[in-house]
Design brief:
Shape: globular
Number of domains: 1
Structural class: mainly alpha
Distance between the termini: 18 Å
Number of helices: 11
Radius of gyration: 20 Å
Largest sheet: none
């Protein structure tokens, strides 16, 4: 993601963060092809899994309570929700820290982790805008298996809240990973490993009910499932209204916990920061 936004003047108070998000969105729409590529990358695994499950359902009608229609809708919803909510602040932070671009930020009256999340928001908006036509095309292609959500107003509100908190969780995880760059010059390998495991633990590869015992227990304890798996389950109508708001409360607790971890890592990391690059 572009680091140029961080060097622009951004007003006072909350306006500087809002300005960062706006400039980032402008930057993202200037390079629309990049957003398209990232969104296609997010959708490819979902399409592959849909094709795999279409073959698997030729010999059965249900797997762990999922019909073929449920499964197709699950992967399409996972593709658009995960793609629209997952930022990669860690790569931006790694690049800026490694090149010494962080140094001027430390002298400004801003919270750099919050600034990075705002900058990533612009790219997520661009990914969502270009992703909607891709999503619509895939819905049309698989239309005979797509389920239209029929949720109560309370469930729709819960779904909206779950998506907002999922975005916060995924963004904070990215910033936590990005803070590791304050200790190591090159952390991209750690990032790739984390998100590879996250593809399994978040339900992007398989619904968590289908994971083997130990891995399933790990997935239900880790924060990943609150990123996309929970909102998708809500959208499919597989979570009762009471369960939706219980889940939203758990998501909120994860946001508080991750924000605390970010604050701790940032405070400790900036003491080690040596201003590499230049």
């Amino acid at each position: 993601m572009s680091a140029e936004v961080a060097t622009r003047p951004a007003g006072t108070g909350l306006r500087k963060y809002w300005s960062a998000a706006i400039f980032s969105a402008q930057d993202a729409f200037t390079y629309r092809a990049t957003a398209v590529v990232w969104m296609l990358v997010d959708f490819v695994p979902s399409v592959v899994m849909i094709l795999v499950w279409q073959a698997a359902y030729r010999t059965q009608t249900s797997v762990e309570g999922y019909s073929l229609h449920d499964m197709v809708t699950y992967y399409l919803a996972t593709g658009i929700i995960a793609g629209a909510l997952t930022s990669h602040a860690e790569f931006t932070m790694n690049w800026e820290i490694r090149d010494g671009r962080l140094t001027p930020q430390l002298t400004r009256p801003i919270s750099y982790p919050v600034l990075v999340m705002c900058k990533e928001t612009g790219w997520l908006i661009a990914k969502l805008v270009v992703g909607i036509p891709v999503f619509a095309l895939l819905v049309f292609i698989f239309r005979q298996h797509v389920l239209v959500p029929h949720l109560s107003p309370a469930a729709w509100i819960g779904f909206g809240l779950s998506c907002l908190l999922a975005y916060a969780i995924l963004s904070l995880i990215g910033v936590c990973l990005g803070c590791l760059s304050l200790w190591t010059i090159e952390s991209s390998g750690i990032f790739e490993l984390w998100w590879s495991l996250g593809g399994v633990l978040s339900g992007s590869l398989l619904p968590l009910e289908l994971l083997p015992g130990v891995l399933r227990h790990v997935a239900f304890v880790a924060p990943h499932r609150w990123g996309s798996y929970f909102p998708v389950r809500v959208l499919l109508g597989k979570v009762p209204v009471a369960g939706i708001y219980e889940g939203v409360l758990i998501q909120f607790c994860w946001v508080i916990a991750l924000a605390t971890i970010v604050a701790l890592l940032w405070r400790l990391g900036t003491r080690k920061y040596e201003g590499w690059g230049g």
